[in-house]
Structure to design on (370 residues):
């Protein structure tokens, strides 16, 4: 009998982490600060790599969060962005978020080739990134082969792209992880 | 309380579909025939789009299967390839299949940008594709922005790439789906 089921479970610490925080994050910087804090906490809790993400609704309301769970789940699909996007679709009950509003993905680092390819299929309308692709590569992460000029290609699909938001704070999380001897994969 | 869990469940018909079939598929064509049959059955069962995939172990042993479950799950991540790859990792207990052997992904169609980006992170060592990217685009599916020369880039990572295996049979499944008025997304 082949495996026929997979369950993704967000780590228990996330509920307590979110509890004291606001439900609405009006500014881009506040949203990015949440994604970076998730990345940092994911390292401290030893539940995965130094990456955090969140999806926000049209009013800046927090819809879902994600952290990198590759090592703890044993599934390479669960990058922070894929976790947050999938949980947002689960919460909204549709694979096409654009059918119900303008949702935004905020990620502590620019997406790898997989997450970049996944973004158009989710129907999100805005992508906000912290650390640069080069920052992730600098500490040893493989980002994969991305098409040249990918921000322009996303924008041509109607997806707004902002990069380098709180870039130095985002980069610091990656560097802390590498310095602490975290597994690079 | 935000959503904190996702469950992927392979459709019930898959067990009965696999039951009379061999556990080992020695040739590339036999493996592709299975992927194409999964795609066709997925249409007939109305559980998703016209795409099927399977992961095989070093001896041609069937490790996992996948069908496109985007519409039935409401999650855009569940392309056939992502389902098969994730179930293979779940079965083998590691996100890096290369750590235990040379696994092969067989897909009834060339991967979209997301699935292409995901492949290196899984540790598979061989990718076998049926219908061409252009065949999927011809019936209206969006394959996303893939880097030029992607087969060469995968091969440079040590992943063998074979395309156009049983291409006309694979294409037929796509065309049948489009003719039957299947949802294109």
């Amino acid at each position: 009998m082949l495996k026929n089921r997979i369950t993704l479970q967000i780590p228990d610490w996330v509920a307590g982490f979110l509890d004291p925080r606001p439900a609405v994050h009006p500014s881009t910087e506040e949203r990015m600060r949440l994604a970076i804090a998730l990345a940092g906490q994911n390292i401290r809790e030893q539940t995965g790599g130094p990456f955090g993400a969140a999806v926000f609704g049209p009013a800046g309301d927090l819809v879902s969060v994600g952290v990198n769970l590759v090592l703890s789940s044993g599934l390479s699909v669960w990058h922070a962005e894929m976790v947050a996007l999938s949980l947002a679709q689960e919460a909204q009950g549709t694979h096409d978020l654009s059918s119900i509003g303008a949702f935004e993905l905020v990620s502590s680092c620019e997406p790898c080739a997989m997450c970049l390819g996944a973004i158009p299929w989710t129907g999100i309308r805005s992508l906000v990134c912290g650390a640069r692709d080069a920052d992730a590569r600098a500490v040893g992460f493989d980002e994969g082969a991305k098409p040249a000029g990918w921000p322009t290609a996303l924008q041509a699909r109607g997806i707004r792209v902002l990069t380098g938001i709180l870039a130095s704070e985002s980069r610091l999380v990656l560097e802390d992880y590498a310095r602490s001897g975290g597994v690079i994969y």
Observations:
- The two ends of chain A are 31 Å apart (CA to CA).
- Chain A has a mean pLDDT of 96.
- The longest helix of chain A spans residues 28-44.
- Chain A has one domain: 24-179.
